[in-house]
Amino acid sequence: MTRQSFACILATASFAVLGATGCATKNYVKSQTAPIIQKTGEVENATAENNRQIHSVDENAQAGIKQAQSSADTANQNAQQASTAAGQANSAANDVAQRADTLDSVVKGLDNYKQIGDVSVNFGFDKSVLTDDDKQQLDTFASQLGTAKSYILEVTGGTDSTGPAQYNYDLSNRRADAVVQYMVTKYDIPAHRFYLIGIGKDQAVADNSTREGRAKNRRVEMQLLTNMNPETAQTSQTSQPAPASNAAPKTGTSNPNDSVE
C-alpha cells in the first residue's frame, strides 16, 4: 500500500469518526432538551388554564355583584314606593278629615240651617257614571229647588271598602262631581250652592261584608239645607243672599260620562 492510499484511508476514517461523534452529540442534546420543552409546554398550558379559571371566577363574581346590586336597588325602590303610597294615603285621609270638619263648621256657622230634602244615588262597582234611574231621582229632587230660598246643597260621595284608600277617595270625589255636574248643567244651579266632599270608604252606611251592603255604600248623598223656617222656605218670594263661607266651595269638574274601568 502506498503512502498516499494510507493517507486517504486515514482521512476517510477520521471524517467518519467525526460524523459519528457529531450525530451522537445532537442526539444527546435532543434527548436532554426534549423533557425541558415538554415541561415548558405543560407549564404554559397550566398557566393558560389558570388564567381561564381566574377570568371565569372574576366574571361570575362580577355577575353576582351586579345581581345583588340590582336586587338591592329593586328592594330600595319598592320600599320608597311603599313609603310614598303610605304618605299619600295619610295625606289624603288628613285632607278628607279637614274638609269634612270645614264643611261641618261652615254649616254649623250658618243661621240654623235645616235639612228640608235629600236624595241618594248609587253607582256600579268602580263606576262614576250616572244611570238613567239616577238622573230621574235627581230630577225629582231638583223639583224642590224651584221655590227654595237661601239654601245650600251638601254633596257627599262614598265607596265600598274594596281597594286602596287613596283610590277610593278619588273615586268618591268623581262620583260627587258627576252629581254636581249634572245638576249644574241641567238646572243652572250656581256653583256657590254646592259643598262637595268625597269620603271614600270612611263612613259606610251598610255592612261591607255583604254584596248588598257594598252596593249601598257606592253612593252619593245630596242634602238640601236652608237657614229659613221650614214652613216658609218653600214659599218665600224674597231672595236671600248666598250664605257666607270662609271655605271655597268645590264644584264638579269631571265629565259625568267618564267611567272608571
Description of the molecule:
This protein is of the alpha+beta class and 261 residues long. It folds into two domains: 1-94; 110-233, OmpA-like domain (60s Ribosomal Protein L30, Chain: A), CATH 3.30.1330. 58% of the residues lie in helices and 11% in strands. It has five helices and four strands. The chain has helices at 3-109, 132-142, 165-187, 211-217, 230-233, and strands at residues 114-122, 151-157, 194-198, 219-226. The protein has a four-stranded mixed beta sheet, with helices on both faces. The chain starts with a helix and ends in a 28-residue tail after the last helix. Mean pLDDT is 75; it is low at 232-261.
Short description, anyone?
The chain is an alpha+beta fold and 261 residues long. Helices cover 58% and strands 11% of the residues.
